[in-house]
Amino acid sequence: MSGLPFGSRGAAECPCGSGTTYDACCGRFHRGAEAAPTAQALMRSRYAAYAVDDLDYVFRTWHPRTRPELPKQQPGTTWLALEILDVVDGGRSDETGVVEFRAHYRDASGTDALHERSTFARRAGRWFYVTAE
C-alpha cells in the first residue's frame, strides 16, 4: 500500500489488520480528525503509518522526551502484517499502557518480523509512544 496517493488509500483495507477501511480506521488518526483513544489504537495507527509511509504521524505520536529527530524507515521495506500479542492497561481512562506486538515485513534481505513490547503514556489527553523493549 505504500506509495499510493492518499486519496486512493481510503477505501482500501487498513494495514493494521482491523478488517475495516483505512479511512474508518487509522486514516482518521493520520489526518488528525481524531486522536487514538487507547494505547492499542495508537500502536495500530503507528504501524499503519509506517505501512503507508506517513512518518510525520510517527513523529507526532512519539513522546517528546524520547523521540529521535526524525523517524526513519529503510527504503524498500514493505510492512506485511501486524499481530497484537498482549495489551496491559492503556485504556480510555489509563495514563500508561503497554502493547506487545509482532510486525511482519519484507525488505531487501527477505521476510522478517519485529517483536517489541512498547510503552505508551497519555499526555494532555493524547496517547504517545514512549519506548520499547
TrEMBL record:
Q: Which residues form the signal peptide?
A: none
Q: Which family does it belong to?
A: Belongs to the UPF0225 family.
What sequence ranges are listed for the domain YchJ-like middle NTF2-like? 38-131
Recorded hits in SUPFAM superfamilies, A to Z, give: NTF2-like
- By what name is this protein known? UPF0225 protein BJ980_001395
Q: Which InterPro entries match?
A: NTF2-like_dom_sf, SEC_C_motif, YchJ-like, YchJ-like_M
Which Pfam family, any one of them, does this sequence belong to? SEC-C
Species in which this protein is naturally found: Nocardioides daedukensis
